[in-house]
Amino acid sequence: MTSANSTSATTILCTCKQTRFHISDRPNYRELDISGLNITIVPDTSSLSSTTTKKGKGKAGAEGTEILSNADLKLKAGARYALVGRNGAGKSTLLRAISEKLIPGIPEEVRVGILQQTGIPDDADDDEWKDGGPETVGQTVLEQVVDRATAKGEVEKDIKQLTKGVNDPDPYGTLRAVRKLKYERMQKKLFVLDKDASLRSGARGLQARKALVEFEKEVEKAEKMNDQPEEEISAEILQAEIQEAADMLAELELQVEPTRLADIESQAKKILTGLGFTDAYMARPANTLSGGWQMRSNLAVALLQETDILILDEPTNFLDLLGIIWLQKYLEGLEDIHPTPPTLILVSHDRDFTSTVCTDLMILKDRGLAYFHGDLPTYEAAQAERKLYLTKMKDAQDKQKAHIQDSIQKNMAAGRKNDDQNKLRQAKSRQKKLDDRWGMQVNAKGHKFKLNRDMAGYHESAREAIDIPKDDKSVSISLPLPPDLRFPGPLISLENVSFRYKIKGRPAHLVVPTLQDITLSVSMGDRIGIVGLNGAGKSTLIRLLVSDPTSSTSGSMSGAIQKHPRLKLGYYSQHAVTSLLSLGRATPSLTALSLLMSETAGVMEEPDVRGLLGSLGLPGRLASNVPLTKLSGGQLVRCELARLLWSHPHCLVLDEPTTHLDYETVTALREALRYWPGAVVLVSHDRWFVKGAVENRKDEDVDSDGEANDDEEDEEEQKRRRLVYKLVAGKEGGKMTLLDKGGVSQFEEGVEKKVRKMMAT
């Protein structure tokens, strides 16, 4: 079976095995069982340059990139899967193939809902949401979410079309309206049948193409009936079609029945509230939302839809901790919301969120799909334990094999010397057993190996060799050492700082300050975490830390901010990826290497710049040949990190740096920040990341380098401050308090209480 889907740049080719037998008449659409799945991305050859296609590598690239090869896609009804794989492994391609039903084994009747990261939205700062702003005519956020989730607009359009015909004094007006609507529905069904015929091959493909040809004749007949003269329509046909129009109208009106829509709207309000929307913002025109808030509304649509398979690709990217925990609880309780909860496929870099929500892992690795019942830390621990077990088994067998081989050699020598044929036959028999029956002593389930059960068929050896899984090439991030300050003192200090934005038409003294009486000191080696919900003022505080507030015309500040005269600051903005994309669009040929070369002119040579980019995961041609607009979100994050690290900063101020990164890179950055000599000020909703980078909490799933330097680390750790502050917006302005009774966990517990209250109402 094959399938193809084309875009302007690539084509997705899917093939799989499919049974020739008819399955149950009542299939469970929440399950998938597809064997022999192959997915290949083929670039559009017309988009390749002539110079590229002449080269061998260009030719190989034109043949396609294989994402899956002979894989098994198996989903259990109602299970919650975390799709795990490195950036570039093909997770988004697989999700797209499922959602668009490009895989022949997925029935057309399966309802698939998807939240897809189709781009990097330009998200407005939560702290700068003010009253007023551009107002345009259109649907409100709530209306749009309900409309998109229920197709209410399409139903109302059909109702309007039929009602106009029914109310037409000319009886033939009703007939024309119902025939037109039936023809439009047939066109949609024709598209599905055409797609089905293209997906199938063999006997089923022949059957699908016959069905397509037959239905095309019906569509052609329906098209002619739309132009049928009135004198050719009998009274019986006219009456029958008028009755059909009345029945269709009643069925459509039932779908938009006020009571049913009221229940859906009530559920939509609960979802939007959980995702951070207030009543005022639900009533805003939907087209005034910024990119990040539009993604939240898209998530609300996906959750509100009735689906068999629900796909969520990075749903936590633009949520604060309140929204993350609410979504976590919502997905955990799908069984209570739906009598038949959808099967969930989730992609997220947030380890705490994923480990709590998902019941199973789907691991995309080496062009195959593997499955594990449990969370990611348990899987990593199980893999490490299995590798240790196999290593010990192989070492023991190697020693035993060497001993047996030595005894065989001695027996062979003794047999030849004394012309003892019995010893020679015995030695040859033992050698054959050693060659053919040496390997795994247990099967995949850990039971004693049995040849007829565990290796049926013909094989070169009677047992599989002990194959110790190789570790993936680890992601590493190396942070440059900061230069000497020459004289001591805090890097940044804030004393009784307050800040309020200017709002047009409102006196300054009537504007509630965003920040109120903030006192903070950052010294070398400090780890400062700042947590808080959206709108608490986190980004405003960050901007005050990294810039000169007196030059800002958007607001007024009181209090004092002082910085070390020799301070070198590295600032990662939550909008860094969007800014890089804007630079790339302005200069389409701009690459990571050319950008860094221009910014470091006279300071760094090209080999040094390449070394820096390579150490952050942008090696070779990826840095020099691929334009910024073609890099993934994770690769753009690496480019931005290179932009702020080349100057060897004393202090890193990081505002949501983990967005768009995969598990391995988030882990690498977390470990790199643990003991870096400089100071780190971190804003992030990723609890696991903050706990490790700021609070230095070590988890069982994070490898340790051993205990050789524990004494040295303890001495350094005593000098290092690790503090977590919470910002809370209030009537008198944003206040900052130190979480000295649990840090991130303390904040998390408070948010969970709020979520429980929200979900109880």
Model description:
With 761 residues, the protein is an alpha/beta fold. The chain folds into four domains: 2-124 and 308-374, Rossmann fold, CATH 3.40.50.300; 152-258, no CATH class; 378-454; 492-568 and 648-760, Rossmann fold. 45% of the residues lie in helices and 16% in strands. It contains 27 helices and 19 strands. The two termini are 50 Å apart.
**What is the spatial order of strands in the main beta sheet?**
6-7-8-5-9-10
Please outline the major beta sheet: 6 strands, mixed
Report how far apart the termini are. Answer: 50 Å
Number of domains: 4
How would you state the average pLDDT, rounded?
80
- Our count of helices gives 27
Outline? flat
What is the name of the CATH class of the largest domain? Alpha Beta
The CATH homologous superfamily of the largest domain is termed P-loop containing nucleotide triphosphate hydrolases
| Strand proportion | 15-25%
- Name the CATH architecture of the largest domain: 3-Layer(aba) Sandwich
The low-pLDDT segments are: 46-62, 119-137, 700-709
Domain ABC transporter: 48-391, 492-730
Pfam family, one: ABC_tran_Xtn
Organism: Podospora pseudocomata
Coiled coil: 212-255
